[in-house]
Structure formats: structure tokens, C-alpha cells
Amino acid sequence: MNFLDRLSENRTLALVVLVVYYVLVTIPHEILGRFINRQFEIVSKETYNMIILVAVVVMMVVGLLIALRKLREHPRPRLWLTYFGVSVAAVFLSMYYLFIINIEVIHFVQYCVFAILCYALTRNYYSILTWALLAGALDELHQYLVLNPTGTNYFDFNDVVINTIGAIFGLLILNLFGRRSEKMPLAERWTSPLFYTLYALIVLWVIAFATGWASYRPTGESTFIVYREMPTEFWSWVGKKIVYHVMMPWEYLLVTAAIYIGYEPLLRGVVEPRS
Fold first, then answer.
1. Cβ atoms 184, 124 nearer than 8 A
2. How many whole angstroms separate alpha carbon 108 and alpha carbon 98?
3. How many CB atoms within 10 Å of residue 152?
4. CA 197, CA 219: separation in Å to the nearest integer?
5. Could you report how far apart the first and last alpha carbons of the chain are, in Å?
6. What is the pLDDT of residues 80-127, one digit of tens each?
7. Secondary structure (DSSP) of 233-263
8. Alpha carbon distance 53, 40 (integer Å)
9. Would residue 51 count as lying in a domain?
10. Torsion angle of C-alpha atoms 42, 58, 267, 184, degrees rounded to 10
11. What is the pTM of this model?
12. Is 269 left (phi over 0), alpha (psi -120 to 50) or beta?
């Protein structure tokens, strides 16, 4: 974590490192996933998924064992463990409900690192999580329009949620190592680069739909279509055994709101023990 301290001393360098990581590591995740998939072509998808599942379980157990040693110095170890447990549950729920193939766990790792690097720029957990959310949405938009325009019929809200959960793990690591979330005065918050970015995106989103450039359902005129083909049922199937749910925008908004509300004590940073 000393690396973060040194990086924080030069915000320009911190920004460059984060952007380079995002462009070279995070955005090409579709290419990395395809490469890994090719290495397991000799086994069935069910076996492949089981291999990844076992690997994830091992990683979680090892991570917890490492964390238990560090938790002796933590002011609220039970709180941290609770959120770690909730986040682990979110990972396995995602693997069951939102994944087509379990190699999608790459998202968790990539955005965990993204959140940690982002701490060198903004020491506020709320800002880090929101930047990760926006970066994840841009990542999926790039995949939808550029990397894999014919491989999916919808903008993948599933993956945006997965990216956000990955960022939560980054915050948990920062929290474990005592990296506090600095409070941001309300006046500074509304005029911060993050909120100016949010304002601009909201305006662009409204203009896109108002002008017909974007649409929710398939039309013959829109350039960007959120769902080129609407799911007909709650579950979508790949073959006869792999099933997943395509998340609707309202579901995505509910899940995102639940993350911000449910993780609020964590997002405030290292909480001192109550006297």
C-alpha cells in the first residue's frame, strides 16, 4: 500500500496509471476472456464452469485467511467480516444468476484493482465506487458497440453490476489496510469532476433518447438500441444446462441503489469502534 502513498503525491501520475490500466487491462477483458476460453475447449462448458468455481472458492478462502491476520488491527472486524461475507455471497449469486460462463469472474479482479488505483486520485470511497460504476458502464458500452457488436442483443447491465461488486472488493482491501475515506464537503461534492461528469452524462442520455439516436427497444431509426432483442422470459438458456437472467434497467437501478445504501457504513471508510 506504500505504492498508493507515493502515487498520491503526484496526482497527474496517478491519473496516467489509472487510465493506462483501464485502457490496457480493463477494456480488453473480452479479448482476455476469449483467450482463456480457448485454453479449455477440450472440456465441456459445465466442467469449465466447475473448474472456475473451485478456483474462486480457493481464492476466497485464501483471501479470508490473509485478512484474518490483518483484522486483529482493525477497529471494526465484525463489520468488515460482515461486508466481506455479503460480497462473497454476491459473487456466487452473480455466478448463478448473471453469468453465462464463470470466466466472467475476471470482472471482479479487474475492478477490484481499478478501485485501489483510483484511491490515489480520490480518497473518498463514494467517489471511487461511482467512478468504477461509470468506468464499468463505458467498458460494457465499448464491448457492445465495438468489441462484440454481433455477440449480444443487449447492453449488458449484468456486467455493470459485476464490475461494481469487484470495486467493492477493492474498497474492502483499502478498508482492511486502514485507508480512510476522506469526507468531502457538500459544496465541493456538487462541483467535483465526478459530479460534472454525471451532469454531462445525464444531459447526453436525455438528448440521445429525445432525438431518437438511442432507443430502449428495437426500431429502424435508432443508432444505439439498449435491447436489440427483448428477453421473452425471466431465464435465458445456453444449450440445455446453462441458464442466466438478463437484467432490465429497473432491476439494475434497484441493485445499484441497494449497494449504495447497504454498504453505506463501508463507504464512510474505517469506522471507529463505539465506546
1. yes
2. 13
3. 16
4. 29
5. 29
6. 999 999 999 999 999 989 988 888 899 999 999 999 999 999 889 999
7. SSEEEETTTEEEEPPPHHHHHHHHHHHHHHT
8. 14
9. yes
10. -70
11. 0.92
12. left
Query: Strands 224-225 and 214-215, how do they pair?
Result: parallel
Total count of residues recorded for the chain = 275
Distance CA 130, CA 135 (A): 8
- What φ, ψ does residue 219 adopt, rounded to 5°? -140, 165
Question: Minimal CA–CA distance to 155: which of 144, 165, 147?
Answer: 144
* Cα 181 from Cα 202, distance rounded (Å): 26
Q: How far apart are CA 111 and CA 121, in angstroms?
A: 15
* CA 139/CA 132 separation, integer angstroms: 10
The grid coordinates of residue 114 equal 481499478
In a domain, 273, yes or no: no
Instruction: With beta carbons less than 8 A apart as the criterion, state whether 95 and 102 touch.
Output: yes
Cβ burial 93-120 (10 Å sphere, 16+ → b, else e): ebbeebbbbbbbbbbbebbbbbbbbbbb
In a domain, 242, yes or no: yes
Question: What distance lies between CA 46 and its chain's CA centroid?
Answer: 25
Q: Which three cell numbers stand for residue 94?
A: 452473480
161 or 151, greater pLDDT: 161
Spell out where the chain has E strands.
214-215, 224-225, 235-238, 242-245
Q: Which residue range forms the structural domain that includes residue 18? A: 2-267
The Cβ of residue 242 has, within 10 Å, a number of other Cβ atoms equal to 15
Residue 19 counted as domain residue: yes
Identity at 217, one-letter amino acid code: R
Quick one: cell of 7? 502515487
Instruction: Provide the domain count of the chain.
Output: 1
Give me the half-sphere count of Cα atoms (radius 13 Å) on the Cβ side of residue 151: 13
Contact 229, 153 (CB under 8 A): yes
The stretch 29-37 carries a mean pLDDT of 74
